[in-house]
Automatic annotation (TrEMBL):
Gene3D superfamilies with a match to the protein in the record: Vaccinia Virus protein VP39 (3.40.50.150)
Domain of life: Bacteria
Keyword list, A-Z: Methyltransferase, rRNA processing, S-adenosyl-L-methionine, Transferase
Protein name per Swiss-Prot or TrEMBL: Methyltransferase
InterPro entries attached to this UniProt entry: SAM-dep_methyl-trfase, SAM-dependent_MTases_sf
Species annotation: Cellvibrio mixtus
Lineage: Bacteria, Pseudomonadati, Pseudomonadota, Gammaproteobacteria, Cellvibrionales
Length: 307
């Protein structure tokens, strides 16, 4: 517990010394680098401190943490939310402060709408930052296809970095509506983005139509019954890449499934798109240490040659 309190004390110093703080993971226990704390993560989405519990903590653990952490912060300027992911519907509880009507993830001058304390996922994934940094470096003047776009954070980053156009595809209209709101929030021109609410695996003609593309992002859920199961469906996406980008280009293939290795994803490319050239695996974000790299988010970059 003392390690988390030390990290919170560092956060308290930042809050007192800065007007705007980029969102970040304060503490990551899930990577099993801190024995006895595997059940907890702490994130900061100014002004919200979000403690997520993935298993039932020891008796009185939360109460003791709060009692020692609360004096570090001004409850008029911070809010503490505890989410219990180990319970059905992952309920959230506000333990101090008042939740603002609008809450944002902040990143390098951009903002992204969040729905904290409402559902399991807040709408923005902090561990994907290496992918966003890579995209910033490669999006300029490119036509980007953002598959499994969710709330379109990749699209906001790509357009801000000079992408010619980004086509966002997701089967959830609600998620894409949040994506539109994220573009509006950041003052991005509507002409640079398109939103397609389709089941990707059943709508390839609709996905292909706005192309061709020269940069494709694949960021699917690892297991979503009825829509996508990475172990059997990732291959169906990879085999379509040559027709989506006949002039060639870059692919960022993401896999957030601890049970599936980097080797699994490479094998899918070898079998389904053997002409693709593996470039690199992006280094995991330092805020997300893990004793086993195969358990971490995998971000693989490939180059597709012209047809």
């Amino acid at each position: 517990m003392q390690l988390i309190l030390d990290r919170l004390a560092q956060l308290a110093d930042k809050v007192q010394g800065a007007l705007v703080i980029d969102s970040y993971r304060v503490f990551h226990g899930r990577g099993r680098c801190f024995p006895g704390l595997e059940f907890v993560t702490v994130d900061f989405f100014q002004p919200v401190i979000l403690i997520t519990l993935f298993a039932e903590p020891p008796e009185s653990w939360v109460e003791q943490l709060i009692a020692q952490a609360q004096p570090l912060f001004n409850p008029e300027h911070t809010v503490l939310v505890v989410q219990r992911r180990y319970l059905p519907q992952a309920p959230s509880e506000i333990l101090w402060g008042e939740l603002p009507e609008s809450i944002y993830a902040r990143r390098r001058g951009s903002r992204f709408n969040l729905h904290l304390a409402q559902q399991q996922n807040a709408g923005y994934f902090l561990d994907m930052e290496p992918g966003r940094l890579w995209l910033e470096q490669h999006a300029s003047n490119r036509r980007v296809l953002n598959l499994f776009a969710y709330t379109c954070a990749f699209s906001v980053v790509a357009i801000a970095a000079g992408a010619e156009k980004v086509v966002n595809v997701d089967m959830s209209s609600a998620a894409l509506n949040l994506g539109r709101a994220n573009h509006q929030l950041n003052g991005l021109a509507k002409s640079h983005s398109e939103f397609v609410a389709e089941n990707i695996l059943k709508s390839w003609s609709r996905v292909k139509k706005p192309g061709p593309y020269d940069l494709v992002i694949i960021d699917p859920p690892s297991y979503q019954k009825g829509s996508f199961i990475a172990a059997k469906d990732y291959a169906k996406v990879i085999r379509r890449l040559p027709e989506l980008m006949p002039q060639g280009g870059l692919v960022l293939a993401c896999l957030n499934a601890p049970e599936l290795s980097e080797g699994f994803l490479k094998q899918q490319f070898d079998e389904q798109c053997p002409q693709a050239e593996f470039i690199e695996r992006l280094q995991a974000h330092a805020d997300f240490p893990d004793i086993d790299p195969e358990q971490q988010l995998k971000l693989l970059v490939y180059k597709i040659p012209p047809a």
